[in-house]
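ingest -> validate -> predict -> emit
validate: passed (alphabet ok, no gaps, 203 aa)
predict: started
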Amino acid sequence: MPRLDISRIEDRFPTIYITLISVLLAVGLEDVISQVRTVESNELFNWVIAIYVSGTTLAAWTGYSFIAITQVRRPRLFDSVNVFALAIGIFIINSSVGKAHHWFFFATSLYMFLAAYAVVYNISMLAEVMPFDMQFRDWAPCLWGTLFYSPPAALAGWLSYKGFIAESTEILLALVVMTQPPLWALSFYKMWKTAMNRARESS
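emit:
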């Protein structure tokens, strides 16, 4: 009987990890587009949600895939939690399509909280393989890019729920929330590029 090849498992981990997150994010993106097309209400806000999910899907895939290609190791339980928690967050946002607008803001606030966990976990994985000590200041912008948006999104949801803001204001606030994915992706790429340059200089 052939023996278990641990090195083979470790070599395949990045491919399996990236494939899994790619499939889950693609399903989430297809789901939101499908919901926007099928709901009776064809209002602008539903398309705002779809655009936001598209942007956050691209940002999430960038973060997960860039980190995963640095990992040659055995899978851990929290790898599954890390992947599925963020995917569930996207599906929760998708469920706000066609609903009262405050549900989108509440769902987005929850997603940002889950994304903050994903950032901490993914950066900790990256730090394990770097030939230098990654300091908090090196990746703090990636964390603030999620945490700073969560409370305002929750506040916007509460104001919308109480009826304190008009629909035009809700759309404006949603557009502000939509700036999070591209800004986060830019901050992550800047951190990633700096880390890779430092790793090359240290090797």
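Helices lie at 6-38, 44-68, 77-94, 101-129, 136-147, 150-162, 167-177, 180-202.
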